[in-house]
Structures are given as C-alpha cells and as structure tokens.
Amino acid sequence: MSLPVASSSILFHQSVESNRVEYKEKGVLEPVIHTICAFANDIENEDGGYILLGVKAKDGMPILPISGLNKNEMDDIQKQIFRYCHYIEPFYYPIIEPSEYQGHSYLTIYVPAGSDRPYKARIRLDGNSKDTAYYIRHGSLTVVAKENEIRRLYDIASYIPFDDRDCPYASVDDLDPELMKQHLKTVGSDLYALADQKSVFDLAKDMRLVGGVKEHPMPKNVGVLMFSNKVNDIFPYARIDVVDLPSPDGQGMQENTFQGPLQSQLTNALSYIQSHWLSERFYKPENESQTLHLYNYPFLAIKELLANAVYHRDYRIQEPITVTRTPAYLEIKSFPGLDAEFSDENIEQLHLNGTSEYRNRRIGQFLKELGLTEGRNTGIPMAERACRENQSPLPYFLLSPNRVSTVVRIPVSPLFRSSTAPTAIRKHAKKRSRDEIKASILIELTRSDLSGREIASRLGYSSFPDVLRACLKELVDAKQIRIIGAGRGAKYHLIRS
C-alpha cells in the first residue's frame, strides 16, 4: 500500500505537523515499536503519525544529506518490525513504504490511529520479560502513559470522530475515482501512479475512505464529503452560502451558494470573495514616507476562519455555513457553537487552544495536505496576525445562547468605513486570473456536465461575463473540454485523459 501523501512532504513537515513525525536512525528497534504503539493510541486525536527510519534529525528537522539505510537491509528491517509488532496488544501493524531522497533510501512508517485502541507494548523486546506499558505521544516525545492518561485512552477509544464513521446512506460506488486521483496528484502521492490500475473500492481503501464489514463495505463520511459528486444528495446542508447585504432592509442583497466536495466549495467560495468583495487602497499617511497598501478585509484572515468553519462544523446539523458581508463587517456563521471547554474570557481574548476531541480530524488532514489549512491551533492566531498586518480591527466572536452557533466577525478596515479616511491613491477589486478561472471550471466539470450559465453560477457570477466565455473557448481549443449538444441544451463536458 502506498502512502497517501508524498514522502518528501512528510520529511520536511509540508503536509504533516512536526509533532506527528518522528525521525529515527537505524539501530535498536525497541523505540520504534514503542512509538508505533503511541501513534496508534493517538491520545491527541490527530490521526496518528509517521516514523522516518534511517533519518537523523537536529532541532526537529532532518540533517542533509540524510544518513539513509542500505537497500539490502531494508527488507530485513521490515520483517523485524512485523515480528516485533506482535508484542503490541492487540496486534497492530503500520503501513511501511520504502522512500528515497537525493539518492538515499529510508523507510516511511505510517501509523494511523488504531481501530482497537488502547494499545500497549512490551517494555523490553529482548529477554524473557513480558511486562507491558501503554505508550502515548507528549508533543514530539514517546512516553509511558500515567494512570489518568490510561483512563483517558479508554475514554477516547469509544469516541470515533464523525468524519471517520461509516456513512450508511451511501455506497462505495458513490465515491468518484477522478476526485480521488485529482487529490493524490495534487499532493504528490506515490499512490497516484497506481490509481488507474485499481478499482474504486481498492483506491478508496488505500486512502482509508472505506469502512463497514467485508460483506457490506460502506464509505466513510469523509469520503462522501470530499470525494463524491453526491455530497449534497446525502448531506444537503453541506454547503457555503455567501450573502452580500448592503442594506439592513435586504435591498440589493445578492446570494451565491457553493456546493459539491468540501475542498471545491471552499476554494470556489474563497475565490468569489476575493474577486468580488475585496478592495485595496494605497495611501500615504501624514508625516510618513512609506505608502501603505491595505485591504477592506485581509484575505488570509477570511481564508483561515472559513477553513476553520468547514473543518469544525457538525455536518449532521441541517444548517449551512453562511458568509455575510455588510458595510460594517464580514461574518462567518457555522454550527454548533464553540465547545464549553472555552470560557467566555478565553473566547473574548481569542485564546482558543484546541480540544483533543476533533469532530472531523480526517477532513482537517486532507485540507492541510491541499494547503487550505495550516494545522493544529493555528487558524485563529493566523487570522489575528493578518488583521494586525492590515491595520484592521481584530476578529471577534458573538456568543449565542447555549453556544448553538459559532459566529465570528471581521470588522471592515477603518480606511474603508470612515468618511474622514485619508484619500486613496487607488482602489480596485482584485480579479481572478484566467488560469484561476479555468482551474475552477475544470473542478466543476469533474462532477457533471454543465451549461455555460450553470458554470457562471457555480463560479459566483451573476451574469455570463466575456472573460468566462473566453476561458471556456480556450479550454475547448486546448481539448480539455468539449461541447455536447447545441443551442439552449448545450453543455460543457470534461475530457478525461
């Protein structure tokens, strides 16, 4: 089985948090088995981790060139690991993939959270002692669990995050192999080269998107939400509504809905907001030589907060994520509210260090692989920093009764709100490039054939602009798409290679 992401991106923490990567030089395998046990226990609910065997590290990063392993001994090492994994109770065996970087070979050991948690392992692999211990991760360290931590392991063993649960309303055939392959290609997974040789079931199984029992397999919720064209048939409220509300009485309101796989609706909603809602101004403050370049809303803050909503919302609640712009603020609303572990004071001060019980850890990991989120507990700090750099007021949360919903607002920059603001040298909306528009078109056509006006609506246009017509023509001329039918019934069809 190949790794779900590129081994080089694991090596340098590009798609995986540093605390989920353990570097080990070759030698005694006892610490390796203990770390496998710890990652499988997944006490922080981060979906396990990776061990890079044959890589020496300093300050949490690999030393280059990597020390590596002799290719002749790699097979023997894998056999030894398999034998020693029988000293883990209940038995657990990770995914091991030979990897190479700059001509040096090493082993990438992928340890997903185990389905039979909690696990314990022999303290000593040699000798006659059969004493065992529960191992867990504390940051980047593997340690023996204390009594209270063992109790916690048993508590979380009964908790399965929603996105990792089986979806009884769908079948494995509802998963789209093209969406899976597109993801594997984007993240540089070695599995992409083998994808065309696999059935939908085998490919989904390799990506850990299948559950159920052997005689009745079912896709997991994360598979349906991210790799199916039937997302909105099964989860009708898994969508993002983007609403422009220029007046309190609703006059002039414009609403756009973004549906489909979560990664597509997130990127398309962000693209629409960036091209339609963001304005920039250059102005020179009095008595200063530097010209400032500011936006009405910092895009990075919007991206982090909206991605957070997609990551943490409860997809069982029949309410969409709503992004609303008014003359005074941009608001993102999702369900449910912030967890009770966060006090009102913590929320007011934006001190929201995360919980160990992630509702959708797999969704978060896939979004991180795609570069749509930055990782654990970073969304709010990054949004806060983006607002400071833009000289905007900080985002703030509105607390609803009983924490029913999560509402976060980003106030508009004072430069764009105040009638007494310094005169702008220039103001314009940031437009999407043709390449960005064409990429969005191709994403939409992976799900179904669409007419020109349907594509315009999916991309957030209220009309059918000339730039969209030109992009469609360029894609037709490049033989990436073709037109089916004629007249009002004409649709664009993706040519799959």
Number of strands: 24
Task: Look at the structure and give the CATH class of the largest domain.
Answer: Alpha Beta
Which parts are unreliable, with pLDDT below 50 for 5 consecutive residues or more?
418-430
Task: Say what oligomer this is.
Answer: single chain
Overall average residue pLDDT:
87
Q: Total number of helical segments?
A: 17
**Cα separation of the termini:** 24 Å
Compute the gyration radius: what is it? 25 Å
Secondary structure layout plus pairing:
Elements: H1 7-11, E1 21-24, H2 30-41, E2 49-53, E3 57-58, E4 61-62, H3 71-84, E5 88-89, E6 95-101, E7 104-111, E8 120-122, E9 132-133, E10 135-138, E11 141-144, H4 147-157, H5 177-187, H6 200-206, E12 210-213, E13 216-219, H7 221-227, H8 231-234, E14 240-244, E15 254-258, H9 262-276, E16 279-283, E17 292-295, H10 299-312, E18 321-325, E19 329-334, H11 344-348, H12 361-369, H13 379-389, E20 396-399, E21 406-411, H14 414-417, E22 426-429, H15 434-445, H16 452-458, H17 466-477, E23 481-484, E24 491-494
Helix pairs in contact: 9-10, 9-15, 10-12, 10-13, 15-17
Describe the structure.
The protein is an alpha+beta fold and 497 residues long. It has four domains: 7-159, Methyltransferase, Cobalt-precorrin-4 Transmethylase, Domain 2; 164-234, no CATH class; 240-429, Heat Shock Protein 90 (2-Layer Sandwich); 434-494, Arc Repressor Mutant, subunit A. It contains 17 helices and 24 strands. The strands form eight sheets. Strands 15-14-18-19-21-20 form a six-stranded mixed sheet. Strand 10 (135-138) and strand 11 (141-144) form a beta hairpin. Helix 9 (262-276) packs antiparallel against helix 10 and helix 9 runs antiparallel to helix 15. Mean pLDDT is 87; it is low at 418-430.
